[in-house]
Structure formats: C-alpha cells, structure tokens
Specification:
The protein is mainly alpha-helical and 124 residues long. The chain is 77% helix and 0% strand. Helix 5 packs antiparallel against helix 6 (93-123). The longest helix has 31 residues, at 93-123.
C-alpha cells in the first residue's frame, strides 16, 4: 500500500494534503498528529459549551479551527466561520447551540478518520 491509497476518505476532503504532502510521509504524520493534538481538546471544549455557554471560548476556538479545517478538509468550515461570528455577536444561546450540535459530530468524525489515516501511515 502506498501513500495515495491511504489518503482516501469519504469523511474529510484530502485534496490539500494530497497536493502538498502526497510524497512526504513524515510530514503527513507530523501534520496529522498536530491536528489531532490541537483539535481534540478544542472540540471537547466546544462540547462543554452545550451546557455552559462561554461565548469567548466558542469564538476563539472557531477562529483557531478555521485554518486547520481549511487545510485538513473538514466539511464544516462555513459553519465554523458562521459560529465564530455568532459567538462574537453574542447571538442567543439556542442559536449557537444548534450550530454546535451540527459541527461537533463532523469534528468528531474528522478526528476518528484522521486517527485511522495516521495509523495506516505509521504502519507503512
């Protein structure tokens, strides 16, 4: 199995990774590792906001995630961008929670998918 066979997914869009890193296994491993390390605790914090709303936390996490999601092909970039604006504007909690309920499962799915891809790359 080669890197191109590993870089397939129905969960995340791997176009950018293939374009920039398709022949550099070590960089892919490092990039995915950083993504997982940085994203997992932030998604946990977003999930906590479903019970205890922290507008500034939601805003700053969404701001951080925008660049990661663009590169990593997570399919809720527009929603994360909108969520950042809603949190900054202190939109009603129910509006923000509705958006969080939409993006959190997508974020979790991307984390699981990238863990699987990372495992396959490390085994290569």
């Amino acid at each position: 199995m080669d890197i191109q066979e590993i870089l397939t997914s129905n969960i995340v869009d791997l176009t950018s990774l293939k374009e920039y890193f398709s022949s550099d296994k070590d960089s892919l491993i490092q990039l995915i590792g950083v993504y997982l390390t940085d994203t997992t605790p932030r998604v946990d914090t977003l999930e906590e906001s479903l019970t205890t709303m922290d507008y500034e936390s939601v805003r700053s996490i969404c701001h951080f995630l925008k660049s990661s999601f663009g590169l990593m092909g997570v399919k809720c970039l527009a929603e994360i961008t909108e969520l950042e604006k809603q949190a900054q504007a202190n939109d009603p909690e129910d509006v923000i929670k509705e958006k969080l309920n939409f993006v959190i499962p997508i974020c979790r799915a991307s984390i699981i998918e990238y863990k699987l891809i990372l495992d396959r790359l490390e085994a290569l």
